[in-house]
Write a sequence for this structure.
């Protein structure tokens, strides 16, 4: 018996291998990655990564995996009433809930209170501007199942001190100040629940037909004529079910082919309104009803309004619906600036008046000056701040929005602090040129706003600050504070320039003196920041340096700024005599640039903002640039600030020629011995942003055999750093460009391992379409801002995350990538190149260690289409021929090739090279039923290798791969494929198709770059 | 490679069995050690590919030094010193350099000096275990307690034998010398090995991991969210986890050894039944305790040089034992903590009290002290340990946090409760022995159930990702 049991044990151990050998497939739709075994070669045996990849492969492809997991999950559920499925919560009596909804059920959202209040404020703004444009806006929150049926959730501890979910907080916020567009579905569903109607199925995330009907009827009541008493009936449409929790619990893969945009036309009644609904998956049961209320209904699944990638024209709709799941409330983003830019011109805004810019008060590290165009702002660093005091805020009758029209000399991230009971901050990305910023004002009598124009030294021009008023009732005169109002709607400072109202600090704005007028008429009048002594102390040399140096965390500098603000605000209206005392011998200290910093060139040079602090009266400040090593004067002494005030000097040193490394020096024009020399090296060159996921990140990590050029730098959260020997692709790329153009190259390292482009591809490390605070995209923008705001090229190596689950279609990825390029990167990042648009270089997805062909090819196709259709977008490198050795990433040698190929594209764009892509298939010719000639065209080369044994070609007929006899070079422009069997009339031919094509012997041209034949799909 | 991994269970282990017994049929056992050595190196390659060469070269060095010590009596001190320097040097570099440099850099920074540029060294897995095995061999040869091995394959197999290569038991050469060539495989051994392995697998995958999830959830909490009940639950869960985890590995190692005819020393003897800390160390990780006793404590003078020196020796051993577990202040404090009680028991004579006197009370107190010690051991740093212990010994009641409530599911709670009897069973009771000793239908039926139900359930837990590596792998 012991022998028998021992043999049974051995048999159990051998069963998976036996199942694998006989090819038994259980055909269960379990979620798995689909990895392939890593390639075995001699060196791989001694690399830990090989075994890691192999272990992952074994786990993923284990032959008994599906039945074992299924059985275990079933046992866990039935026996232990629990599950390891991360997305499912098991309630009582067989009720299942999504885990995310349980987060809300816990009533632990008090830390989000400010965010929810801000959301309510944005919804108010949205409601007002949409309604003012003559449209209807409705906002609905689809409650979680746990909100309507909390009695079946089971034993989940709730936060006893908070006791508020996000929905509770939102309801509270809109109860105090009613939001007319809000339909309280939670209330309606609870009422309906009392009639014993089941509104949510036990095993589904979302409401059922009955629940959706409640929402639909509520909308109908709001948008339909009083006479319209049609009864809505359920007209099923083909929608995929994403919310089946039973399947999720058992480990099944919930594949869905839903597109992010659905357009439905209801032919029944053309007189019905046209609608657009921004929603999430909660829409799926609601659509069959909703379609009956509109002549046309466009459905956009997006967490952002307006969506980035769909290019919807909001003017084309009569009704704008916003339907969000309760659990999605936090992940919801409204772009107020964009919405207002769409509707403001056509909206009938009941009240609009300008604030007097002279009421803007400097707080810290900033100099303000009134000019004919507006308020000029010299901002030194993140600590620099100004404030709007006692701005009339909103009340139950009038909703107010502060509109700022502001020019920025460079891209910046402006931060606005609302000084309310619960302080709130919001950031606005400023582009070079004119920006319109809309700030909804909360419901209170008046408010003070602290504004940090940017993180770096720069010049801004506040052209106007207007209050937009929305009211259902006529605006009372007394609501316009006399002190702040100018009569005309478009009132700017033209009038006040001549009539001059520049008060002394501390004086009331209406107390104007002749001296003030005189000051104004001379040039421009800068009002000194009222530095208290302690604030001046804070602006020591160190603080100035740190101000001009990128800090690791922007938040830190903002906190520091807040500290300064607190101190300086108390004395903000001190008289001019409170300014720093004049010393006998003036001193100046230049704010040095971070060591190794590279400024993006414009043409062949760059304008550099030079700033610093002074004591005493140094008069005009001059600056020059010298080259390190040779002491050659690159830019001679030039006046940068003729009239420094307030202990700050700031000005632009124009036309600093490209090159490096340099030092900056400043001196007093009056006394040349009063000078300050920068010690850090910096240069003017090419900045390249690197975005995407791990194969981009590995540019900086894989390979240690190369040595980087001394002019090459990497910029990341840690600042400007040398590359040393690590990172084959980055070094190969940078060195090749520097070798040809001889100027510094800076690589902005903001790729994120595992990141997707779309939300569906978020594996926990973020996705690029996410523009929320703290998102990977926002971190990139912050980084670009720290690096100066402009780059010359963007490199994009991504797609694996979107392909992995197969839930992102080619259309979706294309739309997202186009939107990402156009609406995000090019909208938010300054174009430092000579091209019309910021060049966007796409490296198509590399060969994978596993996965299904279709989703991978879909992503790759989308990338190629985008590269071909979007202006100044380039297919930077085809990389399918590069070796990945069966791993997630390429080999170190392959990264050298990849870096060199992308550099070739950059040099091509710069006019330094004549080609950057390899040969391509120009046509096919069937010689007989077993022979096909593939015609290729060369770009950089004239011939190709190998002559025989070419791999990577597939001939597909009747859905099956046809056995290929051989593929060989017929002549320099012809590849001949011979087949073993006769070919039917119709056939498809692929070259390098799918996730992991055979690249043992790919076609490589004889150009100096040895570029591969580009992939091909055709017939 | 982890014993409780898909590849080991269903790829590596069956392959070793097939090749091992295959060579027995073809080559009459001549290659059995070579086969085991090949798979042992493959096993190490899989887990620490880049360090295999270090293992092989240091093995060869000790092999040669062992021979030289035996054959060159005049220079044996030199060769012993060379071996000590080599082995302890490698251990110090890989295990302690990061800690030493980071602490030094803190000092330098505080003194306004530039820190030392340093790239963290990766710890080769199992280095603490195979280093101690090599040292025991060289020292035993030096002491003439065992002859030096001439067959390099046998010696390399002794060092690298995969069942105990990564996390013990630490096998002394003299205990296994005769087995290297004289062992006999049998179905009885094989069956016992299968049972022992399955027992260990279930302890690890089912019980230790369940307790581990609870302990992890609690030890991840912010200190202010800890109250009396939760901190005790966390401490108890970790107390169970570390025992079931480590003893499971030892069970599996001993079981695999039995499959191939080896008898490895036991590593645990119901440690939570100990009546004193001294007794605890006679029952916990026994091969390590014995190693320290024979190669450190006794050479330092043991208990033969007066009470003061004895206490000092005990303190030294305990501190080094703590540091052996890793370069962290928590391990050091844990070692000092245990050392203090050992010294106290020595001074007060408590260690000599009859085990049966006040047995229940003494077991309870010992368990309490050991549990508190595990809190030190498990904590990320000293401040967490202090906060955790403070929460354990002050009365407070905070609602259970959500993350902990997720960990307190019925399955993991059920297995935690199933593990609790370990605290109350008699000190000489052994579950696996009860399963194996008596011949008859009941143990066979239980064995059949274990093989047919528990192994597939463990496999399901492993492939569904609810598995974690062994705690002692990192030592």
């Amino acid at each position: 018996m012991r022998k028998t049991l021992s043999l049974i044990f051995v048999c159990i151990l051998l069963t998976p291998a036996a199942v694998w050998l006989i090819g038994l497939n259980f055909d269960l739709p379990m979620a798995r990655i689909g990895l392939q075994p890593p390639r075995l070669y001699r060196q791989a045996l001694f690399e830990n990564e090989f075994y890691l990849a192999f272990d992952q492969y074994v786990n993923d492809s284990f032959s008994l995996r599906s039945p074992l997991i299924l059985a275990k999950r079933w046992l866990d559920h039935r026996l232990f009433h629990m599950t390891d499925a991360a997305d499912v919560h098991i309630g009582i009596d067989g009720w299942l809930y999504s885990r995310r909804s349980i987060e809300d059920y816990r009533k632990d959202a008090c830390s989000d209170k400010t965010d929810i209040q801000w959301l309510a404020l944005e919804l108010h703004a949205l409601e007002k501007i949409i309604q003012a444009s003559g449209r209807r806006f409705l906002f609905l929150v689809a409650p979680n199942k746990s909100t309507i049926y909390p009695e079946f959730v089971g034993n989940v501890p709730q936060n006893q001190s908070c006791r508020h979910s996000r929905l509770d907080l939102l309801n509270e916020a809109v109860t105090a100040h009613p939001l007319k567009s809000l339909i309280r579905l939670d209330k309606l569903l609870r009422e309906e629940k009392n009639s014993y109607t089941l509104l949510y199925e036990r095993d589904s995330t979302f409401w059922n037909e009955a629940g959706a009907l409640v929402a639909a009827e509520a909308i109908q009541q709001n948008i339909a004529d009083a006479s319209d008493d049609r009864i809505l009936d359920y007209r099923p449409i083909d929608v995929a079910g994403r919310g089946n929790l039973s399947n999720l619990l058992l480990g099944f893969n919930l594949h869905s082919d839903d597109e992010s945009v659905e357009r439905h036309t209801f032919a029944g009644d053309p007189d019905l309104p046209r609608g657009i609904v921004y929603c999430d998956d909660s829409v799926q049961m609601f659509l069959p009803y909703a379609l009956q209320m509109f002549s046309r209904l466009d459905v956009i699944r997006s967490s952002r309004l307006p969506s980035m990638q769909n290019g919807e024209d909001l003017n084309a709709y009569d009704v704008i619906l916003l339907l969000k799941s309760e659990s999605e409330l936090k992940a919801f983003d409204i772009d107020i600036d964009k919405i207002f830019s769409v509707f403001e011109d056509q909206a009938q805004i009941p009240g609009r008046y300008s604030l007097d810019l002279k009421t803007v008060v400097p707080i810290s590290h900033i100099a303000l000056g009134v000019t004919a165009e507006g308020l000029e702002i010299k901002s030194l660093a993140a600590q620099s701040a100004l404030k709007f005091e006692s701005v009339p805020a909103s009340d139950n009758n009038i909703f107010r929005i502060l509109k700022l029209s502001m020019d920025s000399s460079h891209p910046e991230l402006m931060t606005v602090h609302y000084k309310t009971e619960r302080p709130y901050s919001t950031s606005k990305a400023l582009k070079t040129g004119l920006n319109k910023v809309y700030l909804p004002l909360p419901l209170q009598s008046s408010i003070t706003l602290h504004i940090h124009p940017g993180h770096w030294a720069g010049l801004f021009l506040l052209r106007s600050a207007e209050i937009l008023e929305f009211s259902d009732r006529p605006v009372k005169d007394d609501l316009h504070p006399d002190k702040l109002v100018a009569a005309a709607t478009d009132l700017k400072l033209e009038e006040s320039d001549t009539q001059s109202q520049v008060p002394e600090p501390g004086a009331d704005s209406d107390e104007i003196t002749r001296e003030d007028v005189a000051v104004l008429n001379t040039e421009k009048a800068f009002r000194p920041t009222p530095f208290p002594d302690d604030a001046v102390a804070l602006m020591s040399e160190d603080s100035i340096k740190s101000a001009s140096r990128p800090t690791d965390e922007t938040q830190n500098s903002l906190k520091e700024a807040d500290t300064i603000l607190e101190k300086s605000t108390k004395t903000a209206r001190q008289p001019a005599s409170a300014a720093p005392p004049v010393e006998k011998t003036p001193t100046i200290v230049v704010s040095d640039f971070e060591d190794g910093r590279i400024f993006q060139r414009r043409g062949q040079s760059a304008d550099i903002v030079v700033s610093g602090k002074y004591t005493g009266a140094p008069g005009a400040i001059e600056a020059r640039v010298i080259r390190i090593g040779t002491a050659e004067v690159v830019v001679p002494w030039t006046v940068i600030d003729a009239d420094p005030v307030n202990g700050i000097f700031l000005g632009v040193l124009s036309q600093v020629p490209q090159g490096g490394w340099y030092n900056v020096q400043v001196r007093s024009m009056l006394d040349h011995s009063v000078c300050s020399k920068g010690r850090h090296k910096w240069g003017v060159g090419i900045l390249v942003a690197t975005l995407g996921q791990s194969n981009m990140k590995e540019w900086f990590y894989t390979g240690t055999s190369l040595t980087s050029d001394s002019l090459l730098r990497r910029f990341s959260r840690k600042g400007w750093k040398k590359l040393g020997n690590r990172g084959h692709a980055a070094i190969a790329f940078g060195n090749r460009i520097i070798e040809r153009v001889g100027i510094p190259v800076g690589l902005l390292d903001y790729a994120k391992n595992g990141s997707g482009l779309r939300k569906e591809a978020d594996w926990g490390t973020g996705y690029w379409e996410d523009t929320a605070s703290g998102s990977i995209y926002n971190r990139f923008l912050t980084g670009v801002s720290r690096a100066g705001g402009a780059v010359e090229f963007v490199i994009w190596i991504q797609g694996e995350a979107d392909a992995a689950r197969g839930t992102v279609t080619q259309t979706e990825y294309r739309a997202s990538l186009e939107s990402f390029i156009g609406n995000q990167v090019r909208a938010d990042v300054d174009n430092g190149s000579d091209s019309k648009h910021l060049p966007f270089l796409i490296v198509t997805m590399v060969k994978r260690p596993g996965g299904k062909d279709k989703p991978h090819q879909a992503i790759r196709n989308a990338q190629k289409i985008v590269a071909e259709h979007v202006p100044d977008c380039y297919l930077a490198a085809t990389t399918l021929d590069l070796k990945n050795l069966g791993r997630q990433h390429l080999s170190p040698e392959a990264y050298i090739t990849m870096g060199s190929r992308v550099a070739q594209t950059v040099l091509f764009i710069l006019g330094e090279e004549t080609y950057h892509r390899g040969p391509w298939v120009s046509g096919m010719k069937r010689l007989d039923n077993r022979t096909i000639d593939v015609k290729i065209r060369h770009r950089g080369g004239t011939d190709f290798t190998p002559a025989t044994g070419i791999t990577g070609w597939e001939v597909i007929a009747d859905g099956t791969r046809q056995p290929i006899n051989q593929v060989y070079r017929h002549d320099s422009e012809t590849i001949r494929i011979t087949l073993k069997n006769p070919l039917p009339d119709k056939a498809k031919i692929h070259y390098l198709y799918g996730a992991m094509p055979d690249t043992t012997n790919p076609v490589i041209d004889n150009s100096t770059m040895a570029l591969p034949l580009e992939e091909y799909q055709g017939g | 490679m982890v014993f409780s991994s898909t590849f080991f269970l269903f790829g590596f282990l069956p392959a070793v069995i097939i090749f091992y017994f295959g060579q027995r049929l073809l080559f009459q056992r001549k290659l059995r050690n070579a086969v085991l050595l090949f798979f042992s190196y493959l096993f190490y390659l899989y887990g620490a590919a880049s360090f295999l060469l270090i293992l092989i070269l240091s093995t060869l060095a000790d092999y040669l030094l062992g021979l030289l010590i035996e054959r060159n009596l005049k220079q044996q001190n030199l060769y012993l010193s060379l071996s000590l320097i080599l082995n302890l040097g490698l251990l110090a570099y890989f295990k302690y350099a990061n800690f030493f440099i980071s602490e030094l850099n803190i000092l330098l920074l505080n003194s306004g000096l530039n820190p030392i540029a340093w790239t963290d060294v990766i710890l080769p897995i199992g280095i603490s275990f195979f280093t101690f095995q090599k040292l025991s061999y060289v020292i035993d040869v030096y002491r003439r307690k065992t002859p030096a091995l001439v067959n390099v394959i046998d010696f390399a197999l002794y060092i690298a034998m995969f069942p105990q290569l990564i996390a013990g038991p630490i096998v002394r050469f003299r205990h296994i010398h005769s087995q290297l060539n004289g062992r006999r495989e049998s179905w009885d051994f094989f069956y016992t090995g299968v049972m022992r392995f399955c027992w260990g697998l279930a302890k690890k995958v089912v019980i230790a991991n369940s307790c581990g999830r609870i302990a992890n959830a609690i030890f991840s909490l912010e200190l202010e969210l800890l109250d009396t009940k939760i901190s005790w639950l966390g401490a108890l869960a970790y107390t169970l986890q570390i025992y079931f985890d480590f003893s499971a590995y030892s069970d599996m190692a001993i079981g695999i050894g039995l499959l191939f005819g080896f008898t490895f020393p036991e590593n645990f003897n119901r440690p939570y039944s100990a009546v004193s800390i001294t007794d605890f160390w006679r029952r916990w990780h026994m091969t390590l305790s014995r190693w320290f006793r024979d190669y450190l404590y006794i050479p330092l003078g043991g208990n033969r040089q007066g009470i003061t020196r004895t206490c000092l020796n005990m303190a030294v051993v305990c501190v080094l034992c703590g540091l052996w577990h890793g370069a962290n202040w928590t391990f050091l404090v844990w070692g000092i903590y245990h050392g203090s009680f050992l010294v106290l028991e020595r001074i007060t004579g408590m260690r000599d009290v009859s085990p049966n006197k006040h047995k229940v009370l003494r077991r309870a107190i010992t368990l309490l002290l050991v549990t508190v010690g595990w809190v030190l051991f498990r904590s990320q740093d000293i401040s967490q340990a202090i906060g955790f212990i403070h929460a354990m010994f002050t009365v407070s009641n905070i609602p259970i946090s959500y993350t902990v409530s997720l960990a307190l599911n019925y399955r993991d709670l059920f297995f935690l409760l199933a593990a609790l009897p370990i605290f109350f069973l008699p000190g000489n009771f052994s579950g696996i022995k009860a399963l194996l000793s008596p011949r008859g239908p009941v143990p066979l039926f239980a064995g059949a159930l274990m093989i047919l139900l528990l192994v597939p359930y463990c496999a399901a837990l492993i492939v569904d990702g609810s598995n974690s590596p062994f705690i002692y792998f990192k030592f």
